[in-house]
Amino acid sequence: MQAQSRFQTQLCQGTIDKNKECLVLKIVQLITRMDKIGGAQKHVEALTLKLKQDNHEVTIVTGLYDPSLWRFQEEKIDVISIPAMQRAIHLKKDLQTFWQLRAALKKIQPDIIAVHSSKAGAIGRVVGRLLRIPTVFTAHSWSFTEGVPHKKKRMYSRMEKSVQPLTAKIITVSEYDRKLALTEKIAPAHKMQTIHNGIYQIEKRVAPIKETEEYPLIVMVARFEVPKRQDLLLEALAELSDVPWRLQLIGDGSLRPSLEKFVADKGLMDRVSFLGNQLDVTSLLEESHLFVLLSDWEGLPISIIEAMRAGLPIIATNVGGVNELVSDNESGFLINRDDKDLLKKRLKQLLMDESLRQKMGDASERRFLKDFTFLPMYQNTLFVYEQAVLKSAKKGD
């Protein structure tokens, strides 16, 4: 293509066609916050590290930032923190974010801005259009998805419709989210593409010797915030006192103190462990017997993909793209939001039946290896970035 002459090229990394040429891009990954561990944040980190490895120049721009949670410093990846950028709508801080982001992008002069999360997604696309930099928005979960309060849903739907024309391409992490956006008339079909989340395979260690099956270990990995529902899991387990189980809750957040009090009041302190944020979730998953994720809404949870990789059976609420990961009655069980009775039934089934856990866990791992590994996701995402840049260069922007 004629437009391609503006950019340096190299042979693509990690592809079947070793003779194919790829653009070498200067990319800004823009996300509202990197001070907590979440699926969107893990996605941005994994993409960024691989892009850097493949000789692309990447800068992270974010709001609050905790460097101890990520590998950017050791990999010499620049991170620009704009503390005024936050999830809640705040006119003064949003204006500060706008001007600071504009100044940062004028200095960096990226070929493309990859935006993640609603707030960064909105402001980033406005600034991108003003500076004539193409933007690709990854919707990790729409803020107007089913389960979100109606007033908030309506507000975010309007906001997304208003900035959609400024977007080169929208990546949805699940088919559910792509179809929802079409239903809500957010963007035309040609502007959206589903690219499922993917994570790295890991070398199989010698199978860990799990503690006695007498008390199967349940694990939930989620921040202690809306829309996650550790409370529902704890309430169900409190009513299964005659069934053997132990629980590890990984994550942190504002709702944790009230749940710790619930556990103390119910006399479950010897069964429930609050582990806080953990950088090495993989080893904890490998030592577990059952993964549970109860959310009022979701996109395509990376925590479930990590559990699939570890070969765990899964119980999860049937929201967002979760049923694109978990096959009901095959690799785990899907339940409706707030259905505590069915949750108790499914928990009891898996806690009491070791062979069922093994069978469903094996199905989970097979599904991960088939559909949710990192490299296909990375290659598809990079291709979207390249096409957005080339299209923008063709138009003379």
TrEMBL record:
Domain Glycosyltransferase subfamily 4-like N-terminal: 37-199
PANTHER family in UniProt: GLYCOSYLTRANSFERASE
Coiled-coil boundaries: none
Origin: domain of life: Bacteria
SUPFAM superfamilies referenced in this protein's UniProt entry, alphabetically: UDP-Glycosyltransferase/glycogen phosphorylase
CDD domains to which the protein is assigned, alphabetical: GT4_CapM-like (cd03808)
Pfam families with a match to the protein in the record: Glyco_transf_4, Glycos_transf_1
Provenance organism: Lysinibacillus xylanilyticus
Protein name, per record: Glycosyltransferase family 4 protein
Domain Glycosyl transferase family as annotated: residue spans: 208-366
